[in-house]
Amino acid sequence: MEKIAAKLKMFCNLSKSAYNYGHVFCGCDLKMCEFNVIINGKVQFRDVIYSKVDGETITVKNIMGEAKEFKGFRIVEIDVPNTRLVLVPLNQSPS
Length: 95
Known about the structure:
Blueprint: H1 2-12, E1 35-39, E2 42-54, E3 57-62, E4 67-71, E5 73-79, E6 84-89
Parallel strand pairs: 1-6
Antiparallel strand pairs: 1-2, 2-3, 3-4, 5-6
């Protein structure tokens, strides 16, 4: 059990998540992973739990149900361990 707990702690960053030896779980299982939308290295929207791409528009919703649209952008990175959803303008070439 200790080895499993150590691996889960490393993978799920349990220092910030709920954890119990009797009921092993990590932040991304019973607690939703909330992402920050990043554009040009700056956070544009926080606590995102939903994202949808529809043509040239990305719609995101946060834990409070607030929605924001990013028109003319595309997703270039989804980083679960660091909770980052990185967007760049459609006209920007991939790096």
